[in-house]
Amino acid sequence: MTDFSIDPIRKDKASGSNIFFNEDKLSRLSNGVEPPKDLLEKILKRIHREERLLVLRRIIIFSVTLIISLLGFMPSLKILLSDLSQSGFLNFSSLIFSDFSSVTVYWQSFAMILLETLPAVSLALFLAVLLVFLESAKSLTKNIKIITNSRLATN
Amino acid sequence: MQNMQNNIFESKLFRAVILSIAGLIVLGFVFGLGVFVGTKRADFSFRWADQYHRNFAGPRGGFFGDFMAQDREFTNSNGLFGQIMKIDTSAGSGQDGNLTVKDRDNTEKIVLISDKTSIIYQKKNIRLSDLKTGDNIVVIGEPNNNGQIQAELIRVMPDPKGASPNNPPST
Q: Fewer CB in a 10 Å sphere around the end CB: N or C, chain B?
């Protein structure tokens, strides 16, 4: 007893429909045509090659962003440090270490002056450069690892 | 039904919606904080400029005005870091005296000192009379309606030239 609900070809045959899985048509089309024996190997090789190309492309892109972020790191840090000292933020924040008990008493005024003197734009710029640098480094190492592992596997 | 609910809560779309809401909350909070700080600075800057004539006996930037300084940023309201230009020890209206301090942004500000103000040099508490002109100080306090700062804490900083450790304010 055949279970028609499981086998799609037989189910189609049973329903009399001629749209999909027509066994006769399939056998007629494939009559005398044999796929090459190394077809699967060729397809897998091609997929592997495409994947490698994709990884290589990613390595190039992330190397460029890493270099750009590295070049931008020092100028953005200099701008941030200069703004921190010019605005007086460092002087005010140094009170945490020298007069901690007094700062806790007047914490509201202290918090306000820190917010007023915080160089938000240069801090955001520096953090953006740092984020790009860290993300590029992470993605670069990940892709280098993939390509190294695939080379080891092929050897 | 249970399975459908699990699918919704574990979907990428649901996570994106949650992250978007969290991001909007953070953005709203930061925006609100920025508006609050900006309003306070603008208010103090307005009062400071408005009361300049009264506080310093003359128009700001001389009698010809200070037209070039129109694009200047708002001045800090809750504190300053600068050099003492003048010390007035005459007590009055609940104050022990006041200091005229040149801020980092080259603006003069009046710092009011009361008996509640802590004046600290190194590890010691000192008095108003111990301060001298030219001392670098960090002031934390509350702004008042006259464009002045009511000091809560004054920290005398070491002289950048290194003269202060050998020449401390007399106690």
A: N
Phi, psi (degrees; rounded to nearest 5) at B137: -130, 155
Say which of A87, A109, A115 has its CB closest to residue B140.
A109
Q: What is the ipTM of this complex?
A: 0.70
Q: Three-state SS for A94?
A: coil
- Residue (of B166, B156, B147) closest to B45 by Cα position: B147
Q: Which amino acid is at B42?
A: A
> How many other CB atoms are there within 10 angstroms of residue B160's CB atom?
8
Dist. CA B144–CA B102, nearest whole Å = 18
Q: Which residues of A40-64 are buried (b: 16+ CB within 10 A; e: fewer)?
A: eeeeeeeeeeeeeeebeebbeebee
Q: CA-CA distance, B55 to B57, in Å (whole number)? A: 6
Q: pLDDT tens digit string along A5-62?
A: 444 445 445 555 555 556 666 666 666 677 888 899 999 999 989 999 999 999 999 9
- A12: its two tokens: 């189609």
C-alpha–C-alpha distance, residues B109 and B140, integer Å: 13
Cα–Cα distance, B118 to B85 (Å, whole number)? 20
What helix, strand, coil percent values describe chain B, rounded to 5?
A: 35, 30, 35
Calpha distance A69→B116 (Å, rounded): 50
For A28, other C-beta atoms within 10 Å of its C-beta total 9
Residues from chain A contacting residue B76 (CB–CB below 8 Å): 88, 113, 116-117
Q: Show residues of chain A in contact with B34, CB under 8 Å.
A: 120
